[in-house]
Predict the structure.
Amino acid sequence: MEKIVEEFIDLQAETEILVNPIPEFDTESTPMITPSEIIEFIYCPRYIYFLNCLGIPQHEELRFKVLKGRELHRKREKTNLHYIRKRPECIDKDVSVYLASKTIGVRGIVDEVLHLADGTLAPLDYKYTNFTEYTYRTHKVQSSIYAMLIKEVYKKTVIKGYICYVRNGNQLKEIIYTPKDFEEAIFVIKTIFDIILRGYYPDRTKYPNRCIDCTYRNICDKV
Ligand code: SF4
């Protein structure tokens, strides 16, 4: 349980960085969701309802951990700026890229966009969690959404993406996207919009142990 919560907090921290981009359109007035909301939804869909529809924030101690994660993220940004990877074979990279799409309905910052030797592009995302053979759903959906955004913004092919697990000596995992990955990403985005814009009350998480330490456990009906 602790491990799951830790992963969730780290993921939130990585994706909650706000920058001051110069977008082609006003992303504040255009309804768009963020990677942070995607992670909250995957952890428990009701988080989106309580946060966005009822405006009830999470515990303050979580905020502290979020800030700590943010600090780690910034350190990495400064030290890793000019390093070009040999595996996968890269010819260039863009760092901390703000991506927004009215069509997809998402805005966010991808850690790196890799320009691969074969002419395709790939998102690379750093995670402050341990490497496991199993790919967490949060990681996969987030990576698939970045791939969709990169395709649209750069107008280039994206076949695969990478996740770098910092706590395991920067162990790299490759994801080769399938049509199912993109279908799932679109489903998640659509459902979040349904909750935020239409006030739809979603099903609870399938994992009851996530309720034990949840901020909303006293107001959530658990059915
Ligand atoms: S109590 Fe459980 S079902 Fe309700 S919001 Fe929290 S994690 Fe989700």
